[in-house]
Amino acid sequence: MLMFFSDEKNDNQNSAMAYVPGIYTTSLSLGQNNVELEIVLDKDNINSIRLVSLDEAVTTIYPLIEPALNSIAEQIYDTQSLENIAFSDENRYTSTVLLNAIETTLEKAAP
Predict the structure, then answer these.
(1) What mean pLDDT do residues 75-95 have?
(2) CB 89 within 8 Å of CB 70
(3) What is each CA distance from 110 to 3, 18, 64, 67, 71, in whole angstroms?
(4) What whole-number distance in Å separates Cα of residue 94 and Cα of residue 45?
(5) pTM of the model
(6) Are residues 19 and 110 in contact, defined by beta-carbon separation less than 8 angstroms?
(7) Has residue 20 got a pLDDT over 60?
């Protein structure tokens, strides 16, 4: 899992990793459907995590995907970290797939 490091020399700075600002995507294959995970970053923050190209067939077959991503994204926005993300047993598989895709996407933004 991607780790974020704190600058121990500067007590005023939050634990964060610098990114190359931009919009990054990763393709997720869900059965016969493809979905794009999109992350918007500035130099120091994860600003947006969302699914794009999500059609009704995907949400019908995978009804937990949007709620799971929303829950994960809110936790990441609050902490700016992928550490200690909580999710229920009912959507463990979906959440794990999404976290892996988020990690893969953030790796693309590493300086």
Answers:
(1) 94
(2) no
(3) 12, 7, 29, 27, 24
(4) 24
(5) 0.82
(6) yes
(7) yes
